[in-house]
């Protein structure tokens, strides 16, 4: 007798592990493990959700035209070249599923997002991991890893958990070096925190094989609602729309995201707070002898002497009710990824680490 067999690749998937949110014995837990917005969701989005709640008996729009229009207005894009998904994770799933299958390869970099291997196996394709140099994406190593079977390159910029950023000239060099049959995906979940860098948007606008993905989960404070978008060539958007479920986003999701993306003051305020507190955290860590690169997102990767020291610092933070992210699974046993919070929250972290150091 033979039992039902899953599709190739599915049993290779290790379940995604999210950031921890509870800590036994602590009421006022400070969760800095999932890069969530310390200011919560924008009031403009909450109001839009209250209004949308009265329409929950109606099926939502299938074409997302209001949301695509709002995104296009905000970022100067062509609404016809936008696709919206259940988080940017779903947009990444559209591209991997539509363009890769068994026998194909999908390239990701050494410290790339853990969803990339999951999505690659979901498509039945083979993940190919390429090394980085000092926590920065290595364009030459990516180009050297390309084979006849390569279909997609998945790149995070700024990186997570590294927080480093690949300069525009390097992104262009990568796009120039890839054959046009290979899709370059620029996962820019943290781009709204970055000043003076377009993250490769000009490439997504002009190249036949570049897709940018963005999210409402980070600066817009809507991680719990699950909304993201992608921007790329019209042909690619048409392909992906064929495998998108017609009602993938609810009316509540669409209303919240449409209000949030138009809320420029919110975006500016959050980016400003993040810059100030990120600088403060970075400076304090370095003063305590804890290494970290200049960070470009809403988190800092603190690098300790070794895994034991990182574990000890993690325990000291937990004793104060603070949860940060262990990133051994991302290749940093000596690292802790700390989400940038507000002034009071960063004060708590700095005090806890200062006490732990005993200085
Ligand atoms: C947070 C994050 C996302 C966002 O995922 P959503 O599905 O939109 O919540 C995407 N990529 C990276 C690298 C991230 O860190």
Task: Explain the overall architecture.
By secondary structure, this protein is an alpha/beta fold. The protein has 2 domains: 124 residues, Aspartate Aminotransferase, domain 1 (Alpha-Beta Complex), CATH 3.90.1150; 221 residues, Aspartate Aminotransferase, domain 2, CATH 3.40.640. 39% of the residues lie in helices and 16% in strands. A 7-stranded mixed beta sheet has the order 2-8-7-6-5-3-4, with helices on both faces. Helix 3 packs across helix 8, helix 5 packs parallel to helix 6 and helix 10 packs parallel to helix 12. The longest helix is centred in the C-terminal third of the chain and has 24 residues. The mean pLDDT is 96. The structure holds pyridoxal-5'-phosphate. The site of pyridoxal-5'-phosphate (PLP) has 14 residues, from helix 3.
Small ligands present: pyridoxal-5'-phosphate
The average pLDDT is 96
Helix/strand structural class: alpha/beta
Main-sheet strand order equals 2-8-7-6-5-3-4
Measure the end-to-end span.
Answer: 67 Å
Helix and strand run? EHHEHEHEHEHEHEEHHHEHEEEH
What's the domain count?
2
Can you tell me the residue ranges where pLDDT is under 50 for at least 5 consecutive residues?
none
Number of strands: 12
Helix content: 25-40%
CATH class of the largest domain: Alpha Beta
Q: Name the overall outline.
A: globular
Counting H and I runs of at least 4 residues, what is the number of helices?
12
CATH homologous superfamily designation of the largest domain: Type I PLP-dependent aspartate aminotransferase-like (Major domain)
